[in-house]
Amino acid sequence: MKLVRGIVDRFEGDFAVVEMDDESMLNIRKDRLPKGVREGIVLVIEDNCIRIDEEQTKRLEEEIKALEEELWK
Question: What global pTM score does this model have?
């Protein structure tokens, strides 16, 4: 399996709804996710293994913060 990324959009019941790079939505059982996953976290899925992309998550959070600051100037 190739490496793919997605952002946790929301949780619905026992599933995380993840928006993938190609804008498709993927439901992943919560019990398959690494500890600490929350909305907005970037996940990397590779060879049936799911991990948090700490660097990309931080970058995304910084971009969102900058946009919010610009909006409220």
Answer: 0.86
The DSSP element (H or E) to which 67 belongs, if any, is helix 54-71
Q: Distance between CA atoms of 31 and 29, rounded to whole angstroms?
A: 5
Question: For the domain bounded by 3-71, which CATH number is listed?
Answer: 2.30.30
Model confidence pLDDT, tens digit, residues 14-69:
999 999 999 999 999 999 999 999 999 999 999 889 999 999 999 999 999 999 99
Furthest C-alpha separation in the chain? 45
Place of tokens 């293994």: 49
Distances (CA, A) of 10 to 1, 2, 35: 25, 24, 16
